[in-house]
Specification:
This protein is mainly alpha-helical. The protein has 2 helices and 2 strands; from the N terminus they run H-E-E-H. It starts with a helix and ends with a helix. The relative contact order is 0.06.
Length: about 110
């Protein structure tokens, strides 16, 4: 059997069931749905669940893209502000360490004299 699979004479897939000569595949008609957002009627394939019409779907996609762009802009602005405050904090820390070192040197010079 393994050699037959390698040569292409056999397969592990199950055999297809042949339809009778008078059997045809059923084609179901489309279903009328009502948009959950705006209430407009639209056609959907058989067996589908109600959702949004194409107009509302496009509006939702555009709104999501707009909100995403605003969120990215807000995150970039927050990162810029955080970087700026870190630079200010670093500068103040360097100044404080410098003043502390100068006072330490001045204090040790006064105690030696």
């Amino acid at each position: 059997m393994f050699n037959d699979i390698l040569t292409g004479k056999a397969s592990l897939e199950p055999k297809r069931e042949s339809n009778g000569p008078y059997r045809e595949q059923a084609v179901l008609p489309p279903i009328q749905h009502v948009c959950v957002t705006c209430g407009q009627r639209y056609q959907g394939p058989a067996g589908s669940v109600p959702g949004c019409c194409s107009t509302c779907h496009v509006a939702i996609v555009e709104a999501n893209a707009r909100e995403s762009a605003l969120a990215v802009h807000a995150a970039q602005e927050h990162a810029r502000r955080a970087g700026k405050s870190h630079r200010v904090l670093r500068a103040l820390l360097i100044v404080a360490i410098g003043i502390g070192a100068a006072l330490f040197r001045y204090g040790t010079a006064q105690s030696d004299a």
